[in-house]
Structure formats: structure tokens, C-alpha cells
Amino acid sequence: MIxxxxxxLRIGLAGGGTDVSPYCDKFGGAILNATISLSANxxxxxxxxxxxxxxxxxxxxxxxxDWHSQLPIDxxxxxxxxxYNRIQKDYPFEKEDLNSALTWMPRPVRD
Length: 111
What we know:
By secondary structure, the protein is an alpha+beta fold. It has a domain of 70 residues. The protein contains 2 helices and 5 strands. A 5-stranded mixed sheet has the order 1-2-5-3-4, with no helix packed on it. A hairpin with a 4-residue loop joins strand 3 and strand 4. The longest helix is centred in the C-terminal third of the chain and has 13 residues. 5% of the residues are buried.
């Protein structure tokens, strides 16, 4: 089974972080965001073998790992590995359940 997700990108204009506990619990919070016409996308799909492949197409980066319940945070695709580690911590799964996670975002237009 292939799982896909899509979320609009937002730009934080003011108040970033004031809506996150514990700050907002003590002082309240207010933020101003704007959604733009780009989105972040993620795909999780099974692949052959006992490995995990993380790909960030917007950065032209790929990392492949032998199956492990936690991935090393070492400066390379750390956001993807951190999400993987957190999901594995909160909702443990076996290698038969998940083998590949792909993410991509539209490339920024450059002159």
C-alpha cells in the first residue's frame, strides 16, 4: 500500500512561536501566517529488501539505511530521520510495515 500526504506551505509573518506551550499557557499567543500556492508532499511505500530509503527531491539528497528502529541524527536529512524516529518511538512498527519514506517539495524558482 502506498500512503501519500500533502500540506500547504505557510509563511510566518509575525508572532512565530507564541502559540506554542509553555509560552502561550503563560502569556497567550497570536500569530500571523499566510499560505502560499506551494505544498509539501510525502509518500511512504514498500520496497524490496530490509532497508529504509529517505529521499528529499527538492534537495537532491538520498540516504539508505539497513533496517533499524532509530536512525542517526548526523546533519544529513535530519528532519526526515527525526520524524521517522519519533513515529517509531510513539507507534513502534516492524520492518515489514514500512520500508521507504519519500518527501518532496516544489523547487524554488531561481533566476
